[in-house]
Request: fold
Amino acid sequence: MEIDLEVPQSVKLTAVEFFDDDSIECLNYPILIKELFEDIFLKYKRLEIKDKSLLEKYDIKLLPSMLFFRNGKLVGKMQGYYYNNAKKDMIEQVNEIISSA
Reply:
């Protein structure tokens, strides 16, 4: 699995967006990547969920989801879609995850 091969090797904070092209929520309400990470230096990957075992492994209940890893360890998670009017809340949540990572 791509995530298992690359994330553990990264000492840099890594954000992995999990999505499903068959999900209407993922298509209509994508995570606002450019706005969230505009001034943040991190590694970003986008991963379509084809192997449902990843959902169980990382306890993902809603898609799209953003998981944050440092040194191969999960340090934060944002689950589900957000409406554009919640951008400020999303940015605050990402900043909290980054500051605690």
Notes: The two ends are 24 Å apart (CA to CA). Helices lie at 2-6, 24-28, 33-36, 53-57, 87-100. Residues 11 and 71 are 5 Å apart (CA to CA). The longest strand covers residues 73-79.
